[in-house]
Specification:
It contains 15 helices and 18 strands. The protein is α+β, with helices and mostly antiparallel strands.
Length: 623
């Protein structure tokens, strides 16, 4: 019944829902112009929607209009419905980015960082497949970009560079490690703005934003960093992994807000803003399963931070944004002021994130990787796996080795658990005799069983309590394998080319021996591969070493549990299935040894049905 429920749910609810979502996205991609101008000249925002950054008493709103929808370029062409990312990139003059890990460009319009491609990571396991695209410009199907700006204070008319400003290249031709690029813009009123971009050989772009005052009067400006994302990205939607908006808001701690929680879906165009005033030591951005982008201001600077979500309007997409605003920067005549801010855009490589956390003094920056509540287990486990991976060169082998270490470290707990089960198994005939003798008197039956446990010095709970620390460590290991990027596109042996994806084999085509799959696309056609079946066998055999349940119905449920778990496990990354199957094999050896040590009868051949086959074969031979 459980298997039928799982199959029915998948076939009649999950699959149709996924198909409807795919059809909706396809239709939206054909009819929607991402970032198209909306009412009152603002891009895709209904009239009357407040600015994403609330008005501060005594100061003007940071921008005249919704900040999430930065205006479309007004030079170099215009966006058109169904425009590709490549076409959108050609609309604006750009400065190329070229590093060992990144390719892309910076738009001279607003000096926007809106083109980042991760050259070391591919969309699929095929090395010729496209590289992962992280940041994209306005006009592309899913705009995602970072932008810095200077803002005039309230009651002033200071001309500052904004989203329509065309910056001029003062020095540099290509942004590369050791080769900075400087952009310049003069407001014609005595203020000269310079923006110097530098980049390292990983994923960090550092920006020095300078304003020089050559006029006769002092000016006071605000400086703002923006990271915006238009459209809700595809998320795993699994409780052990945070995907969405994230930031360290100084002493207010790490903030994790999912995309859904950042939106007010009560009406179209509704805006929800969460503000963090006067925080020191802040960074904020977006995190996906394997990729992230973030603003990292000077950690010694006090600033105001905002997290904003704007609900979709009609066919237009949702918009998300984080802001970091440093206020009241005074620039006296004949002086200059510089604001430093870094932009991270790249893969969530643990060691790289930890290096940035240390060098930039960005507290909790490596929490871009969701270590979870059991971080005191997940962090050390990751270090062990990563160290083994570097030594053996195969992530799957590292999983097998660390499972042995974990089993060895938890041997004392497992030994108590299996020993208790072995004693229970040894006493099972006597327990059955007592149940049969007092089957009409449940109270007396329990009393006699308790006396038997006391006489034989057995604690019935001893078989369960030692499993608790084992469960915590095993869950931590499972989480590490799921959330870290190391397993992505990491091959094992044979047909396993990606340990982070489900087993691609299928029993319906005899695991590749047949050139076709009659059930391809159905539940059975793509979920039950070779490794899930290995997991099924190891789990079922291991359960045969456990004491039989006195209730026949309960025992039948236990017999079917491996089948149920196989359907569930087959959806998980194959690296996790390998880890669990290998753990079952190690546990089977350990449990068999302890049962023999304590003299418990092991009817493994009988339970497997092999004993009957041997008896029949012997009788036939004798005849």
């Amino acid at each position: 019944l459980s298997v039928m429920v799982l199959l029915g749910w998948q076939m009649f609810f999950v699959t149709p829902k996924l198909k409807d979502e795919q059809d909706r996205r396809a239709k939206q991609a054909q009819t929607t112009q991402p970032g198209a101008p909306g009412p009152a000249g603002q891009p895709g925002i209904a009239p009357g929607v407040a600015p994403s950054v609330p008005t501060i008493p005594g100061a003007a709103p940071p921008v005249a209009g919704p900040a999430v929808s930065t205006p479309l370029p007004t030079s170099g062409g215009s966006a058109a419905p169904g425009m590709t990312r490549e076409a959108a990139l050609k609309l604006i003059p750009r400065v190329p980015i070229d590093t060992p890990r990144l390719k892309g460009s910076i738009a001279l319009k607003a000096g926007r960082v809106d083109d980042i491609v991760l050259t070391r990571y591919r969309e699929t396991t095929d090395p010729k497949s496209p590289a992962v695209e992280l940041l994209s410009p306005i006009g592309a199907p899913n705009p995602y970009f970072a932008e810095l700006a200077w803002l005039p204070t309230a009651g002033t008319a200071t001309k500052v560079p904004d989203s329509d400003t065309d910056w001029r290249v003062e020095s540099g031709t290509t942004l590369a490690p050791g080769a900075p690029v400087t952009l310049v813009w003069d407001n014609g009123q005595g203020l000269t703005f310079r923006r110097v971009y530098t980049i390292d050989d990983h994923y960090l772009i550092s920006v020095a934003d300078t304003v020089e005052n050559k006029s006769a009067a002092a000016v006071v400006l605000d400086h703002r960093g923006v990271l915006a994302r238009i459209g809700t990205p595809k998320v795993e939607g699994f409780f052990i992994l945070h995907e969405g908006l994230i930031g360290q808001m100084g002493e207010k701690g790490l903030q994790e807000i999912t995309y859904s929680k950042s939106l007010d879906t009560s009406k179209d165009g509704a805006q929800l803003t969460k503000s963090f005033d006067k925080v020191k030591g802040a960074w904020l951005g977006f995190t996906d399963k394997y990729w992230a982008a973030a603003l990292l201001p000077d950690q010694k600077t006090t600033l105001d931070a905002y997290v904003t979500g704007v609900n979709k309007v009609g066919t237009q997409k949702e918009r998300y944004q984080v802001d970091a605003i440093q206020r009241g920067i005074a620039v006296a005549p004949g002086t200059l002021q510089t604001v430093n801010m870094s932009i991270f855009a790249g893969a969530k490589e643990v060691r790289t994130l930890q290096d940035y956390e240390r060098t930039l003094e960005a507290k909790n920056f490596d929490n871009m990787v969701d270590w979870g509540w059991f971080y005191f287990f997940t962090r050390p486990l990751y270090k062990i796996i990563h160290w083994l991976y570097e030594k053996v060169g195969n992530f799957g082998v590292a999983i097998l080795l660390v499972t042995i270490f974990v089993k060895g470290g938890l041997f004392c707990f497992a030994n108590k658990s299996y020993a208790s089960m072995a004693k229970m198994k040894k006493l099972q005939p006597e327990m059955e005799r007592l149940r049969e003798r007092f089957k009409d008197d449940k109270m007396r039956q329990q009393q006699e069983l308790m006396e038997l446990y006391k006489k034989e010095k057995i604690n019935p709970a001893a078989g369960c309590l030692p499993m608790i620390p084992q469960g915590i460590v095993m869950f931590a290991l499972y989480k590490v394998l799921y959330i870290t990027i190391d397993a992505r596109h990491a091959p094992f042996y044979g047909w396993i080319k990606d340990l982070a994806a489900p087993d691609p084999s299928s029993f319906t085509n005899l695991f590749g021996l047949l050139p076709w799959n009659a059930l391809e696309g159905s539940l059975l056609g793509y979920t039950i591969g070779a490794w899930p079946l290995i997991y099924l066998v190891t789990m079922w055999v291991q359960m045969q070493l456990n004491p039989q349940q006195p209730d026949p119905v309960q025992q039948q449920i236990f017999n079917w549990m491996p089948v149920m778990f196989t359907f569930i496990m087959a959806q998980f990354p194959v690296g996790l299935v390998i880890y669990w199957a290998w753990g079952n094999i190690l546990g089977l050896i350990q449990q068999y040894y302890i049962n023999k040590k304590h003299g418990a009868e092991i009817h493994l051949w009988k339970n497997l049905g092999i004993e009957k086959l041997i008896d029949r074969w012997a009788a036939k031979k004798k005849t």
